[in-house]
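USER: Please consider what follows.
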Amino acid sequence: MLETASLTTVQAQAILVPFNCIEPKTIQTPTEKLAVQQAVLQLVKVTDNQILGILADSLEQATQTLNRYTQIMGHQPPTDVPPCSDAVYLKFNPRSGLCYASPYTGDHRGVLISFQSDAADGLNEMCGHLPLDLFEP
């Protein structure tokens, strides 16, 4: 897992507010990219599970993205990704290991992350559509 700057959970949440799962948001600068990376990793640290949904042009692109995100987040990637052709929605739950893929006809591309806490008063939020290449070097 990448090292995070000393962001608080509230600061991390504020950085991710523009990624509201509705309106597309692009990252404009390397500094903004780093801030989003660190915000995601801060929320990973304070939650018990993160479910990833990836909207991509191909299963290959979705799988590469999933592998990179899971590696950075400290999870094991799935060992068997179901086949799917054309644009795809790939969903993965690291806790259960369940992974499925289905055709996707929409225009959105990116990663949705559902941050989940086991505690009732813990953090439970979703953000996206994060860039497919957010954690690429």
Q: What stands out?
A: The chain has one domain: 9-130. The first helix runs from residue 9 to 16. Residues 9-130 form a domain with the Dihydrodipicolinate Reductase; domain 2 fold (CATH 3.30.360.10).
